[in-house]
Specification:
By secondary structure, this protein is mainly β. The protein is built from no helices and 20 strands. It folds into two domains: about 100 residues, Regulator of chromosome condensation 1/beta-lactamase-inhibitor protein II (Methylamine Dehydrogenase, Chain H, 7 Propeller), CATH 2.130.10; about 100 residues, Regulator of chromosome condensation 1/beta-lactamase-inhibitor protein II (Methylamine Dehydrogenase, Chain H, 7 Propeller). Helices cover about 0% and strands about 50% of the residues.
């Protein structure tokens, strides 16, 4: 075992990631697509390190792929890539970290698509796009990062990639969503159209958002936690909730 404190964790579908205070990434779990990043396809029941050039400051785990962001702004990815999830321009799985893009400040891995924020406030998406989750007005998947919403005069401060849909918050507190809306997870007051291929405004007064399998959670500027979308297992409870009393 290691002796350094944990500073971040990320859970994929069947693999786990951990970041320690030294900037080292640890992984374990299933490894059929190389999502553990150790150069093999062998499952691992115990923690092992990932060899990444640089000190890691953030991690994110998708369905069966992984990302790590180093302090020099370089984004690294590994694991499943048959749908372009890694964004390296190929559709080939990788069992070792490969550089994706630079100048990155935040990353979010979804089920089969990915999102990143760059230092200039830019929003980039790539991977599977069958439900319009890339937000580029098409349903064509992309193995390379595509910058979207360049026409708005504001920066993004928060992103979250869910199962075939995406959420993003701009600096003025506007929450945007796009992709699959079949369960109301985009907060449009309906479940049609099922797919929204361009970013659509959901609400104002947002600070951060999190996209799940078919539901969404939003933290607001007035200290409330709001939810919308699928509720078959009580995911939404009785939202909104006052976050100060949770």
């Amino acid at each position: 075992m290691y002796a350094h404190p944990t500073v971040a964790v990320a859970a994929g579908s069947r693999h786990m990631m951990e970041l320690d205070s030294d900037g080292v990434v640890w992984t374990w779990g299933i490894n059929n697509r190389g999502q553990l990043g150790n150069g093999t396809r062998q499952n691992r029941l115990f923690l092992g390190t990932v060899n990444i050039a640089g000190q890691v400051i953030a991690i994110s785990a998708g369905h069966d792929f992984s990302f790590a962001l180093t302090d020099d702004g370089i984004l690294w990815g590994w694991g499943a890539n048959s749908l372009g999830e890694l964004g390296d321009g190929t559709e080939t799985h990788s069992s070792v970290p490969v550089p994706i893009m630079d100048d990155v400040i935040a990353i979010s891995a979804g089920y089969q698509h990915s999102m990143a924020l760059t230092a200039d406030g830019g929003l980039w998406t790539w991977g599977f796009n069958g439900s319009g989750q890339l937000g580029n007005s098409t349903r064509r998947s992309s193995p390379t990062p595509v910058r979207i919403m360049q026409n708005i005069n504001m920066e993004f401060i928060n992103i979250s990639a869910g199962t075939n849909f995406s959420l993003a918050v701009t600096e003025d507190g506007t929450l945007w969503g796009w992709g699959n809306n079949g369960q109301g997870q985009l907060g449009q007051g309906n479940i049609r159209p099922h797919e929204i291929t361009l970013p659509t405004e959901i609400m104002t007064g947002a600070i951060a958002a999190s996209a799940g399998g078919g539901h969404s959670l939003v933290m607001t500027t007035n200290d409330q936690l709001m939810g919308f979308g699928r509720n078959t297992n009580g995911q939404l409870m009785d939202w909104p909730r006052d976050t100060q009393t949770r």
